[in-house]
């Protein structure tokens, strides 16, 4: 891919972890295009200790001062919490191609985004309201339930869930001093910029948003905008663990009818145009209620859903990370070649613990080697955590996600068989919680599906 602008041109990658590290290495391997990296890992110590002193705008200022001496000509990041916004700020400062800063803010401020949806695509919106209380404050009386509650600004599904009573909402919004400190440190950089850029009337991002729960199957539309023109890439099915709002697997190809995919693309086109999203990758999460033929937007992520890049490459021969680098350098992604697909179906399988008393064994060296030998095309991610971190995950997310596996198969049946064999090698239960032997999509299993809203496909979900 011709991403270099000259013999000394370099690309800056921000918060380049997990799937992004794998995807960028895959694209850049053999190209001879130099890159630099910056940013820290929010989920590992001591790297995440930088959060205590992190100032997003000052950090971008330092990057801008280094840009010319390092020879950077482009910046890319698909990191939800800080990276996408930081990349947009730096690109704006340097005059590089990038997603407009205000478009990032408009998408990530969930209340503001709902207001825009109500103006331009009301038929795809859900009833919503701001919880008139800051974190930890008393819950107002007079609210109707059930409600789906989520932070105005958050990532990785933190604190997003349905509540059925005032007491349940009260318990959900109680935090210890350490938890409040972490939440505020994560949100404050966004809060300052949103007030500066979106206007003084924009509500504080240190609030919770209330929405009407939706009971339907969930999907993700991925695409990009180049020169103001939206180009859909595909749709991934997001399948939940029955009775929860937690992802069980993300799967391609989609079972969503093409006509509904086209409607989703039209919603994306109208919304993104309204917020000034003229350049960059995006991910639109939405519900589709087949019985009512209703499409409802969950949220817009103004970045690549990095977890899906590998799936699209396997099934469609499209590399999202190659598209992201092309966009960072102002290159039309339509000019990129496709590779020959290697699978008829692929999935990102998510392994979770829902009972903190349940024992979870991490595969050791022998199990990992057995997996790698049996499934050379597979990707394995393990997420061991301390007891305290597991308890926090259960409070904030409702479960502990201890592993992820990516596999492809010749078709959906073969994919399931390969997943079951791989899970046995790892000592984990295969994430197929539908009826035994069933491949029925959750859209026709409503009695076994819980409401789910605002669940980001980012890697830390």
Structural summary, described in words:
- The protein folds into three domains: 10-99, Rossmann fold (3-Layer(aba) Sandwich), CATH 3.40.50; 106-211; 217-448, ATP-grasp fold, B domain (D-amino Acid Aminotransferase, Chain A, domain 1, 2-Layer Sandwich).
- Helix content is 34%, strand content 21%.
- It contains 13 helices and 15 strands.
- The strands form three sheets. It has an eight-stranded antiparallel β-sheet with strand order 12-11-8-9-10-13-15-14, sandwiched between helices. The chain has a four-stranded antiparallel β-sheet with strand order 4-7-5-6, sandwiched between helices. A three-stranded parallel β-sheet has the order 2-1-3, sandwiched between helices.
- A hairpin with a 2-residue loop joins strand 8 and strand 9 (229-240).
């Amino acid at each position: 891919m011709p991403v270099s602008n000259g013999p000394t041109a370099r690309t800056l990658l921000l918060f380049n972890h997990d799937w992004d590290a794998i995807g960028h290495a895959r694209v850049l391997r053999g190209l001879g295009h130099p890159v630099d990296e910056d940013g820290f890992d929010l989920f590992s110590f001591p790297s995440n200790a930088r959060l205590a002193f992190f100032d997003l705008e000052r950090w971008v200022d330092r990057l801008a001062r280094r840009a010319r001496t390092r020879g950077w000509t482009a910046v890319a990041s698909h990191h939800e919490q800080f990276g996408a916004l930081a990349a947009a700020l730096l690109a704006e400062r340097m005059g590089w191609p990038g997603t407009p800063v205000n478009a990032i803010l408009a998408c990530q401020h969930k209340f503001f985004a709902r207001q825009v949806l109500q103006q331009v695509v009301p038929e795809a919106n859900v009833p919503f309201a701001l919880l008139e209380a800051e974190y930890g404050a008393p819950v107002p009386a007079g609210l109707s339930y059930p409600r789906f509650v989520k932070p105005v600004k958050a990532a990785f599904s933190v604190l997003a869930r349905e509540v059925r009573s005032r007491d349940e909402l009260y318990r959900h919004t109680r935090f210890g001093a350490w938890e409040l400190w972490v939440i505020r440190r994560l949100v404050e950089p966004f809060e300052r910029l949103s007030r500066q850029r979106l206007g003084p009337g924009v509500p504080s991002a240190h609030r919770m948003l209330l929405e009407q729960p939706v009971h339907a199957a969930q999907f993700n539309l991925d695409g990009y905008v180049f020169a103001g023109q939206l180009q859909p890439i595909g749709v991934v099915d997001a399948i939940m663990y029955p009775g929860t709002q937690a992802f069980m697997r993300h799967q391609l190809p989609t079972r969503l009818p093409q006509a509904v995919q086209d409607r989703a693309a039209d919603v994306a086109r109208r919304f993104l145009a309204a917020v000034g999203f003229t350049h960059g990758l995006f991910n639109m999460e939405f519900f589709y209620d087949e019985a009512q033929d209703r499409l409802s937007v969950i949220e817009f992520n103004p970045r690549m859903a990095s977890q899906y890049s590998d799936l699209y490459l396997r099934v469609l021969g499209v590399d999202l990370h190659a598209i992201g680098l092309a966009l960072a350098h102002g290159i039309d992604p339509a000019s990129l070649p496709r590779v020959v697909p290697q699978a008829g179906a692929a999935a990102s399988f998510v392994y979770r613990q829902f009972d903190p008393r349940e024992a979870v064994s991490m595969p050791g060296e022998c199990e990992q080697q057995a997996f790698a030998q049996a499934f050379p095309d597979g990707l394995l991610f393990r997420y061991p955590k301390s007891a305290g971190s597991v308890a926090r995950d259960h409070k904030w997310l409702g479960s502990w996600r201890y592993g992820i596996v990516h596999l492809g198969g010749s078709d959906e049946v073969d994919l399931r068989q390969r997943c079951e064999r791989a899970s046995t090698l790892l000592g984990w239960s295969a994430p197929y919680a539908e009826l035994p032997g069933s491949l029925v999509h959750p859209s026709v299993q409503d009695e076994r599906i819980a409401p789910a809203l605002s669940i980001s496909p980012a890697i830390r979900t």
